[in-house]
């Protein structure tokens, strides 16, 4: 049968087409992206007290920023020699470690966990306004809220110390809140690429991929009818990188399944099943859409592997 040879070849072709389409899609957003100033938050104390306002500023002090820092919305990366450099998809507010952080609005915590350069990261979905809010550089060592419902102004965690907030003892990171607000829900976005849901610095102009200027949202207190609109894009520009990664694991798993079944290598089936299961589990933690498919493939590999071993022992 030729299907065994045909399948990896067609998958390879699909991956190549996807990669090229994705690169074309990623290259589209290269328009000018000037850094935007902080909006005036001098009325923010009222937002905390009054329930008629949908949003509250997530810190007690609404004017803690230091304007000389390159941390406003759409600010280009520090290393301007990196071409094309990346833009800040959020606003940073500098406060001491241990400063309490509160929920921007009613919603559901859809992620609360360690995340690369963020130390501890919390994401809250606010479906009633069609936005999600992102709180980076929180403290993993202090109390933090786990996934579940949350109300506006509820304590969700504390700012992290300079060695645990994404920084380290060798390269400490000054304590601050990285606040992102974006149109859509966390699950509307992939876990990889410039459209990734946890992005802090990205190549496209953040406003082009759904990120909103946080202080403007809080100061404005006005929600467009039907919620904030999703950004315009095509499927591959948004999902291309995650689809590629997913296809790679899927193709590897299918390759092992076909090869090991033909060569009667039961242990290879089990080994492949375990590897794909671990990948699927890790991807599930990172909010990857491909993870259920990988976990399903792992079950198939393990089922056939263990079944073969059981049959051989009879
Ligand atoms: Zn930041």
Largest sheet: 7 strands, antiparallel
Name the helicity range: 25-40%
The bound ligands are:
zinc ion
Strand content: 15-25%
Gyration radius (Cα, Å) is: 23 Å
In angstroms, what separates the terminal alpha carbons?
A: 29 Å
Q: What is the number of helices?
A: 6
In the predicted model, the low-confidence regions spanning at least 5 consecutive residues are 24-29
Give the ordered list of helices and strands.
Answer: HHEEEEEEEEEEEHHHH
Shape: elongated
Structural class: alpha+beta
The overall average pLDDT, rounded, is: 87
Q: Count of DSSP E strands?
A: 11
What features would you highlight for this structure?
314 residues; two-stranded antiparallel sheet; 6 helices; 35% helix; binds zinc ion
Task: Give the topology.
Blueprint: H1 3-26, H2 44-49, E1 87-88, E2 91-94, E3 100-102, E4 107-114, E5 120-126, E6 131-138, E7 148-150, E8 155-158, E9 176-183, E10 201-202, E11 211-212, H3 214-220, H4 235-263, H5 266-285, H6 291-313
Antiparallel strand pairs: 1-10, 2-9, 3-8, 4-5, 4-7, 5-6, 6-9, 9-11
Helix pairs in contact: 1-4, 4-5, 4-6, 5-6
